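Report of the visiting student (M.T.), summer placement. My assignment was to run the structure pipeline on a short list of targets and document each run. The first record concerns G-protein coupled receptors family 1 profile domain-containing protein.
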Amino acid sequence: CSGCKYSLTKYCWAIRFLKGFAFGANIFNLLAISLDRHEAFINPLRYTSKMTRKKLVFILAMVWGAPVLLAATRNFWQHSSSREMSLFIDKTYSIILTFIFVIIPFFLLLGINFRILIVIKKQVQRIHVANAVQNFPSNLSTKRSRAVNNVRKLKGTLACVVVVLIYVLCWLPRIFYNFCFLFRRKDLVSPLLIHLSLFFLFLQSSLNPFIYSFYRVEFR
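After the run finished, the structure tokens were exported:
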């Protein structure tokens, strides 16, 4: 295709599509999980009524459908435009995707999960206070079962929060790399930065199963 910088294979457009799709789906899934946990903790009484089957299907369609459309759009000019025009459009489109896939989700995930952490801290304090209060023997079993359920919910949500925060930290080198290209400061980009940014991306994906195994017994 005319927009490929390397021309290693005539199917490079398909490889770029799969890379863009996997990248977008990963970020949109993290956003959906964070928003779901946010609603479950901030509005627990209204969560069941708000999260209907219809809304769930819509969210899943957006999470998996939007990356397909955004990744497939790149192929239109790569097969129909000249190399110079294709490279120019591709660079402009990459800047747009940087905002959609990287910068905006980065700050959204950061804000949502910090708010969740604040709520978790308050919930833990309430659990400690409830356990410290002396109750009648007949109510002890009920109180304990509620405390166990609350701890399980907190651990599940905390696992999601840790996954997202690790995602944010691991993406910092790549975000700096993207900013350098956005503001035409390629002089700040070194081979070490490129290798480190890619290494942390792979590290982020590799750590997720271990995090879930640590916090979730059923995942083990």
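The chain has a mean pLDDT of 73. Helices lie at 12-42, 44-50, 53-80, 83-132, 137-182, 191-215. I thank the supervising group for their guidance throughout the placement.
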